[in-house]
Amino acid sequence: MSIGIIGSGNIGSAFARALARAGLSAVIANSRGPASLQSLEDELSPFIKAGTLEEAASADIVLVAVNWSKLSQALKGLPDWKGRTVIDANNPIEAPLFKPAELGGRLSSEIFADLVPGARVVKAFNHLAAPLISGDPAAEGGHRVLFYSGDDAAAKADVGALIQRLGFAGVDLGPLSVGGKLAQFPGGPLPVLNLVKFG
To answer: What total number of domains does the chain contain?
Structure first.
């Protein structure tokens, strides 16, 4: 399966490093264009290539990790998602103030899903600090836990398999209405918990 990454901040870059460490290829893109990602491409060559937003968005699995206030603009005008799997790695909060965004009582994943019509959304990779995503997932004799949730069983299976391929212990939290709430930051009880699964 081809993999795309939209957003080259802390989480997007950490995900790219995790893929490269596992020998998996991906196209990464941001709003500033491929030239701005040359140093990251050089670091992670030959696995990670810089590309356009359209190129990253056309992959089978696309991870999106963009500043919350810029999400709508970043996803505007992209090709039809056509049932492809999109990983929501976003949190409705931004530096430097870290003030929670106003969600009108909705989950951030519900709002995100509206921005990627036709996609099968899976919430994942948002609850761990970036260095834990890019670092060695083997910890304390076990494997670092990565939570994921979604409403489409096949999409969740694909993301769960990817999480396992990266060396993490994936834990399925169920549908977005449950897992999205548990893993949302701020508000949910699971973000920044560095858990390890043994056995």
So the answer is: 1
Q: What's the pLDDT at 125? A: 97
CA atoms of 86 and 62, how far apart (whole Å): 5
Model pLDDT, residue 99 = 84
**Alpha-carbon gap, residue 66 to 145, rounded angstroms:** 23
Q: What is the pTM of this model?
A: 0.96
Q: Is 172 helix (H, G, I), strand (E, B) or coil?
A: strand
3-state secondary structure 26-72: EEEECCCCHHHHHHHHHHHCCCEEECCHHHHHCCCEEEECCCHHHHH
Q: Domain of 11: which CATH number? A: 3.40.50.720
- Mapping DSSP to helix (H, G, I), strand (E, B) and coil, where does residue 93 land? coil
Domain hosting residue 105, numbered range = 3-197
- Please state, in angstroms and rounded to a whole number, the distance separating the CA atoms of residues 146 and 155: 16
Contact residues for 92 (Cβ-Cβ < 8 A; gap 6+): 68, 100, 101, 103, 108, 111, 184, 186
Q: Report the alpha-carbon distance of residue 120 to residue 23 in Å, rounded.
A: 25
Residues in the chain: 199
CA 108 to chain centre: 13
Beta strands in 102-152 (DSSP E): 120-124, 138-139, 142-150
What rounded mean pLDDT belongs to the chain?
95
| Gap between the Cα atoms of 176 and 198, Å rounded | 26
